[in-house]
Amino acid sequence: FVPGGASLHNVMSGHGPDAESHEGARKASLGPVKVGAGSCAFMFETCLMVGVTEWGLRTCKKVQEGYSEESWGGVITHWKQPEDKPVRSHLLV
């Protein structure tokens, strides 16, 4: 994002740091740090389902076809399921 930039996300759509940013933050030393120097971006999530017009999807030719894979395809799963906890649906019990 550029300073003052913004993004708008559909309700319940995936968004967040890319794989490189996630791993960098995960491996960073914990301690006080100054963040955001020279930037301030905004992310908005609407409670509405936003549709895309034909122009926005195809005609403008600016859709990033590989966006999901490029951004999150390299995210590594570090979580391991505890052996003594069975999985029922998406919840540990």
Automatic annotation (TrEMBL):
Pathway field: Amino-acid degradation; L-phenylalanine degradation; acetoacetate and fumarate from L-phenylalanine: step 4/6
Residues that bind homogentisate: 15
CC per GO annotation: cytoplasm
EC number: 1.13.11.5
Cofactor(s) annotated in UniProt: Fe cation
Homogentisate 1,2-dioxygenase C-terminal domain segment(s): 1-76
Binding site for Fe cation: 15
Iron among keywords: yes
Keyword flag Disulfide bond: no
GO terms of molecular function: homogentisate 1,2-dioxygenase activity; metal ion binding
Region (Disordered) location: 1-27
Alphabetical keyword list: Iron, Metal-binding
Basic and acidic residues bias: start-end ranges: 17-26
Superkingdom of the organism of origin: Eukaryota
Pfam families per the UniProt record, alphabetical: HgmA_C
GO biological process assignments: L-phenylalanine catabolic process; tyrosine metabolic process
Family assignment from sequence similarity: Belongs to the homogentisate dioxygenase family.
PANTHER family, sorted: HOMOGENTISATE 1,2-DIOXYGENASE
Protein name: homogentisate 1,2-dioxygenase
Provenance organism: Cordyceps confragosa (Lecanicillium lecanii)
